[in-house]
Amino acid sequence: MVFALRARSIAFRLPKARGFATISENPSFRIPLIDFSKFLKATSATEKRQTAEDIVAGFKEVGFIYLHKHGIPDATVKNAFTKSAEFFSLPKDTKQKLAWEDPRSNRGYVAIGRERVTQSADPSEIAQLRAQAPDYKESMEIGRNWDPTWKNQWPQESDAPRFKESMLGFYQTCHDLHVYVMRAIALGLNLEETFFDKIVDQQCHNLRLLSYPPIKTNLLEKDGQARAGAHSDYGTLTLLFQDSVGGLEVQNPHTKEFQPAPPIPGSIVINAGDLLARWSNDVLRSTLHRVVAPPAKKVSETEGITPKRQSIAFFCNPNFDALISCLPNCGKEAKYAPVTTEEYIVGRLAVTYT
């Protein structure tokens, strides 16, 4: 069984009725392991609703779930990782021609150190954090390819064969899965299953390819330095595809300690973002998380070097013109004023990058 993993600090427990990945040895912090085929192939409304309630319970309690048997073939994910690695192996000058320029677009190549994710919304504070301890990663940001205003920035086909084709296909695949997860959330909140369909159909998402190069341990010893600093995501959901290296840590909402959320073969990590928390009046939880370096390989008596790491994140958003206000069944009084998706997302992105 692919989930029968054992380590001193990590135990995956799979009760017959419901699976959990128990992080560390703290039983109060359990990320639900959801068999999504029970929703996709449900033979009864009761079976579908049970899976939906398990998903919503995970977002209420932890803010994270593992989604297994989600319908995306392993070969599709493997191809996306292969094409991502080929892109990041291109010469720096070639990648820099595709540089990210505008938060309204949110497309293009982001070099190491340009982004500093944080919970702060103060531009001067973020600039100081970036100068002191930038995130040690590079990324490539891809949006919907038919946008009437903002265009994706693609490498030449000769430089990265089938990169564009592969990423556009993967983008659509992730969107399709996201629609089904949103349907599950709707059912779990006692809404009509298709409640969100017309609010997410414009595919205003962001596919982010991430590369964490090897780094010497002495460079990670700066105060606050991480491969990606502690943050919550901006949108509704994030679908995270991890390689085998790991490094993702999730903050235990109860103890505030960061604990590993290791990759589970064949599964996708999905977390709720700030906009979904706001939309649900904080019924659904947007949880802090970060990426830390895995154990380093010793290269001298005083120095080590971490392995490289890859991941792919698909940041899901409602339509940019959607007005995000308190959902039905999520409290009698709204905690937040209505805001459009575009206003919220662009505002957060604008202070994140230089």
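The above is record 1. Record 2 follows with the same two-line structure.
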Amino acid sequence: MLASLVGTAVEFYDFYVYATAASLFFGPLFFPSSDPSAQLLLSYATLGLAFVARPVGAALFGHFGDRVGRKSTLVASLLLMGGSTTLIAFLPTYAQAGWIASLLLCLLRFGQGLGLGGEWGGAALLAVENAPPGWRGRFGMVPQLGAPVGFIAANGFFLLLGLILPNEAMREWGWRIPFLASAILVAVGLWVRLKLTETPAFAAALAEAPPEAVPIATMAREHLGATVAGTLGVVACFALYYISTAFALGYGTTALGYDRNDFLLIQLGAIFFMAGGIALAGIASDRFDPRRTLIGGCAATIVAGFLLAPMLGSGSLLLAFLFLTIALVCMGFCYGPLGAWLPGLFPPQVRYTGASIAFNVGGILGGALTPIFAQAMAEHYGLMPVGLYCSGCAAVSLVTLLVARGRRASQR
């Protein structure tokens, strides 16, 4: 559990450091001057690049995770993610290198996506395949806690720097410091993960039969229905999360006029409620089951979408904080049970590949273009369509979960 939590926290720190910097700094730093809105859209587009890379990483690392083992694959994914993040700190800006700066930023963002694509599935399996009977939900939610821990570390770092450094220094060089810090965190994550042994489920699967030659082919041939169900089942959590974080931060501090440090602070506070939601969802998953818990989270997310415009767009920092709190608690219930639900859809021989592909393709559908769509809708039509978009994504996941069934035979 500790290894799964530390690893996901480090990797999500890397991921969210980028999302925060993209919302606040990367537009004018890495893209041609036109208008601030266009630069912000281009910056959000680089966020989407990682979502394109994540299924590629899921297939690549899933192949080796199902054939070689969970441990070595998780170490490799952490190294790729951490190396890509650290190198961003050394990039030249558009003013210094022109389009080369933009290209290098996109390449390193793609590297982040590859690393995270292989991270989540392995961390979830590390937890649930070591869980004692009756504890899969609680063990499965532990790597999910890496997301709020990573977010708190990333945004907290930016908030602290913003309080210490003037705006000019933050724009010129201060934004690089959180990326440099990733190297230290990756070293800690590696120290923990190198002490791991293989999970009992993977060892038992190898004892029964040799590993699949091409796990992704077996997954597509024999478990396509489970893969589609898993993919659509995660759409809600990605859409809600990126609307509540990347979009809300960028739009809130520009069009709505919220102070940057104030908004970072309320996001930081709301993320603690997301962590609480994840923990409660893990408990509920063991008491009921992960699918029913996810159904409740998606139903609540539909309601949260209707609250976005009146609360976030009110101009009141308190109401904005209340909306973020409600949304991120719902996010906890849409996200926390996934660590137990998605692996349960697949047998051990293709579990790393299947869970990773479903999670990361769902990330493309729910998260890759969401900040761009939300920004465009908000500029032309206001915040109400953004809330309806969020509710619509939750409805897709809700319908999927209502007709989906976990494979009880694979719960080992």
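Confidence is low (pLDDT under 50) at residues 406-412.
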